[in-house]
């Protein structure tokens, strides 16, 4: 499972890259994000899910299904969202009603129903978290991060956007705010969007290992890819058409991304987490 120290840390792109890498290794892979908030979706006549999971499915070379994103929230403003469940419109809900009356009584069961369907059909599920697992004000209602990792027995890799600064503090702080039972699920870290000489970071890696007992799996350099973005801080996503030409272009970009990630991360160590 890939979780982040914040929104926009690079979870979606890393999941896409890992989907392609493990697909190239011969695994049957599927992406999964239990709950996604985005106004940018992949829509067919039969269902609608976040376009991020559709892009990750293309990376994994598998059929796009609604179980890859069982809960989609499309913000409407004034704390209301349109709620889609397993690809179908459910109803418009206020945030209070969604968290207090829907998430735990109904949403959680739906999440694991979809996860189990994917698990039966694939060798490997690469799960994407949402936002940060350390949003302690929402921890009770969080069905996208550590509760999912625990129930699915998934090792967690924590990714942080170093371009925005504060990555070392955000990693250590995230771990400190997690319950002890969840900290042990975190196996290591990835730094994303780095500019410059990686040797500058190495003293920090040693210190973070001293503070947390966990290692850094690698550093992804800052590079631009023509892949669809979600709604997130500092990003202005554009609409896109899911025609053959755009999907082929996306596939080429995913292949380039996967090669970059494979070169810069300890993929053998990551593969070891799933065996």
Describe this structure in words.
- By secondary structure, the chain is an alpha/beta fold.
- It has one domain (2-272): P-loop containing nucleotide triphosphate hydrolases (Rossmann fold), CATH 3.40.50.
- The chain has helices at 11-24, 51-60, 95-121, 146-151, 167-177, 180-183, 202-212, 244-264, 267-272; strands at residues 2-4, 29-32, 35-37, 41-43, 48-50, 71-77, 80-85, 88-94, 124-127, 156-161, 186-194, 215-221.
- The strands form 4 sheets. It has a 4-stranded parallel beta sheet, with helices on both faces.
- Helix 1 runs parallel beside helix 2 and helix 1 (11-24) crosses helix 8 (244-264).
- The protein is globular and about 50 Å long.
- It starts with a strand and ends with a helix.
- 42% of the residues are buried.
- The mean pLDDT is 94.
What would the keywords be for this entry?
single chain; 275 residues; alpha/beta; Rossmann fold; 4-stranded parallel beta sheet; 9 helices; 12 strands; 40% helix; globular
What is the CA-based Rg, rounded? Answer: 18 Å
Sketch the topology as an H/E string, one letter per element. EHEEEEHEEEHEHEHHEHEHH
Mean pLDDT level: 94
Q: Can you identify the CATH superfamily?
A: P-loop containing nucleotide triphosphate hydrolases
The number of domains is 1
CATH architecture annotation name: 3-Layer(aba) Sandwich
Tally of helical segments: 9
Major pleated sheet: 4 strands, parallel
Question: Within the largest sheet, what's the order of strands?
Answer: 1-10-11-12
In CATH, what is the class? Alpha Beta
